[in-house]
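For the sake of clarity, the format in which proteins appear in this thesis is described at this point. The fold follows as a row of integers, each naming the local backbone shape at the matching residue. One such record is shown here in full, so that the layout can be seen directly:
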Amino acid sequence: MKNQTLVIFLFLCSYLSLFAQENNALVSGENLKYRIHLGFINAAEATIKSSPNTFTIDDQIVRKVEIEGKTTGVLELFSPLRDYWSAQIDTKTLLPIKTEMRKREGRYRKEETVLYQMDKGFAKITSPQNKPVTSTMAGPKDLLDLISAYYFLRSKPVADKKPGSKWSAQVLVDSKIYELVLVVKAKETIETEAGKRSSIKTNILLPKNNLFKEEDAIRLWISDDEYQVPLKVQVNLKIGFLTIDLVDYSIQGKKIYFPKASL
């Protein structure tokens, strides 16, 4: 499965921010680390980091968030992957201003920059691997990118909602717009790398595709606390079972859940 493991993780992260004030979702100096398994294989790891400082673009206060991922273990030997994604996000609306992506997957290379001008109704996409190199794509004013969408859940009162409650978002990924739906299922106590923790179990519904076994193949557990971070993800793929676990979490250097862990 040519490097699909980490791509799935990044895509899942793309379903997680929409509207709030410089809000608790977009935390300064936040650092999360995840371990990814395909069945019993230790397949990859990924980190999500937000900058400690903000800056200004066209009178908008912006914070930068970065995702880095790489294969580990056996996959690192046979199919190495190094992916990098960054987004400059408006701290008030949590909408993307500019995103950058660099993929190194075996011999495959891809770079892409997207400028979001949704007040004008389009996003400008530039990639030396595309033909033409620069193009525009029409979209809604609240269009999300791969990273800004990560904060969707964390700006929503998931814990307060009844089972069956839903949210939807439109996300731009690889020059295509996907509509994803999150469904709240129930509260559960689950076993994590940090011990037993209270969580909210949810399902992510995806458009019909050839990768996932069924429409609701993704199960996501969110911490039932002030942080609302994804603790665990289970994905039922046609080729196997994928598990993603939070293994370290810190804010401004202070450990959260993992007092003895180190990044």
In short: The longest strand covers residues 41-57. The chain has two helices and 15 strands.
